[in-house]
TrEMBL record:
It comes from the Eukaryota. Its main location: membrane. This is Transmembrane channel-like protein. Keywords: Membrane, Transmembrane, Transmembrane helix. The keyword Calcium does not apply. GO terms for molecular function: mechanosensitive monoatomic ion channel activity. Residues 574-680 form the TMC domain. The keyword Transmembrane helix applies. It comes from Poecilia latipinna (sailfin molly). It is a multi-pass membrane protein. The chain crosses the membrane at residues 268-295, 362-382, 452-480, 500-523, 583-605, 682-707, 751-772. Belongs to the TMC family.
Amino acid sequence: MAQNVNFDLSHPAVEAGLESPADENVVHDSFSQLIAEQSQNEGLSDAIELQHLQGNPDDDEGRDNVAYLSPSENRGWRIGSDEAAEEDNETQTDSLLKDRWSSATLKILSSMPSRTIGRSRGAIISQYYNRTTELRRRTQKRASIKDFSRSARPSIRGYGVEVDTTDSAEKKQERLVKNLQDLSAVDRMRMLKEMPLNLSEKKDLRRLTLEMTKRTRSSSNLPCCSYLKFQIILALRHSWYSCLSFLHSLQLWQMPLKRVGGRFGSGVLSYFLFLKTLLFFNVFLFLVLGSFLVFPQAVYLPELPESRTPFTGLELLTGGGYFSNTLLYYGYYSNHTLPNCPKNNSTRPECDSRSLSYNMPLAYFFTIGLSFFITCIILVYSMSKSFGQSFRIDKSNGMLAMKVFCSWDFKVIKRSSVKLLSENICTQLKELLGDTHHRLVRNTILDKLIKLLIHGLSWTLCLGATAGCVAGIYCFSDYMHKKQESSENDSEDPGLLNEASLLALPVLVSFINLMLPILFQLTAWMEKYNSPSLRTFVSLSRNLILKVSVLGVLCFHWLKRVAGSANDDKTFKCWESFVGQDLYRFLVIDFIFSLLDTLFGELLWRLFSDKVLKRNRRPGFDIAKNVLDLIYGQTLAWLGLLFTPLLPAVQILKLLLLFYIKMSSVMMNCQAPSRPYRVSQMTTIFITLLCFPSFLGSSVCVTYTMWRLPSSGSCGPFRGNKTMIQAGKQRIAELVDENRSLSFLADAHTYLVENPLFLFVGAAIFLIVIYFQSQVVDGQRKIIALLQEQIENEGEDKKFLITRLQSVHERKRTPARNLTSQDSGC
């Protein structure tokens, strides 16, 4: 309210510029000197402001008002606010408002640094002239001031303020320009940024400094070599800055992400940022697997069967047929050292004993393990970093003030960029205001019981539908497995029809993943959540339960049923390649259903709404469903690293197409949320879900396959071994036999690879890192809360001291007033 007098200690003018906390005496001296300078140089303006206060002492009580503490242009508003408050008959509880302000108190308060920072330009120039002089003296001894204490905001307080009141403002400015000229470019820009002047005055100081520097350089007689060296340095610096600007412009999808963030807010933007993160993960996996597995095998092709299946086009959907004997699958890779040199044939040049060899089984094993290990490190680092960024303490009021006053980029001059930046800031302000105005609705006990009943029915319906669909997938996968076993024994069954029937299970799973989220949306609409972010998190948890349950059933199908038939060569001659083909089919069919969802769920609904209903009711973008679809597809890609080394390439193509399709659909067919909300922790939740349910489950399945499941005896790099891990053990034993000095490799393999304790220790270290990061963030949050409370207490202390000073002044003024009244009576 207008009656409350708040001392804003977080104002930029109150904080120190370069001084350390130990310079308190210097700070207080600067206060007194600054007040003295103002009283001499700007006495006229102070006299104009206070002339009505220094009249008849009897009129002090009527003229003293809190409104005089504010600038003159704001007094009318404050007085009007006081009148409105008096109409409401509100009681004044602030101790500062109970007493009348005297002219002496007002004069002291008007001379406070926080109230003179914007008025005395000459004092500011004198202040920073002394600072630049001191800084120039220090730089004579030390070339840089990087080690100096630094503050985020400037202040007129600083080192000793040696104010020379005899000089004019022009001379002060000229001396300041000379001092700025002698500083380095970094120190000069830093000093200009810290000056509490407006932008035009800073530009004038910078322009004068540059002009003086140019005149100095032109007047000085530089030798030809020095001038040439100076021009080369300038050209190199300009080239470096141009290169940095060009690299910054090459950031992937920079403008589309700004556009969607400005129109739809941080919630929809988090989906596309998460898609971009997954793209980088898959590019890394493709480079690693392509360099150490695909490329060596492509150079030395294995012996192919004489009769190969011709290409029919159906392979693009099923992944079988012609693609079965290619670099795409596990069964194509060799189980010997490259190049393959028979013992009776050593005439080939690559079979020379001095040439380098490449052990494909060992490379396959350690490349897959290294890919998962590096991915785990990147995920843990990203998650810990995201924890520190999103779970910081940030009050909506403070963020709102920063966004209003500090968010505009004055370097933006292009019309489209200005429009995009203003749209982005407007959306962020709406989100912050939505958080500020959000209030909990007080419900009666009956309303709470009704809501609890609706929530219980909704969760029962969602969990029951999920359990029923998962049971259906389990039964149908068992049926398809038995049919596949029978079709392998039936030679009369046409191969093309049999290959097309393999699409039935992926189509069923993708159809369930498409339809059940619609049911989740309907139940969320029935529940009527007050908070849009809470609704998003509930939908995210329901979709997560669905995806995890489906993937669990599929992993059981592949690792138990399909791998369990490995002993029967008549059923699956190469079960690893069959699982790889199944993962390829699931990934492709999931992409097709995503396109169908975009077509029917967004495009056709928008056309129906515009053409038939004649209403602007476009569909909203379902963040939870689309994000869980991305996590589902990435889990399939991680599961397929062992069975399909080129599956990351397929995932990269899918993500690229999905980005442009979803971006176009969102911009044309979807509408922004009717209630904007800020999702500050959404990216952290996405990374966490990607790490623990997705990556952890994929790592467990791949580790179980390599350690426990039997390898196929007719294909792949691990044929002839009982399990995949035995290939590494066998190769290390061969190296130890050839060279006894390498016996430490056998011990390292035994204790680090075969022993699961190492994996548990590594996982425990990663979890400890995440825990400590979260604890550090929590401690910072508590410290910030304590500091904010301390600032509020200091403000209350200042109010108390000013009130006591006012009371003392009133007691001293009362006897003088009584004497005046007695004299007038006489």
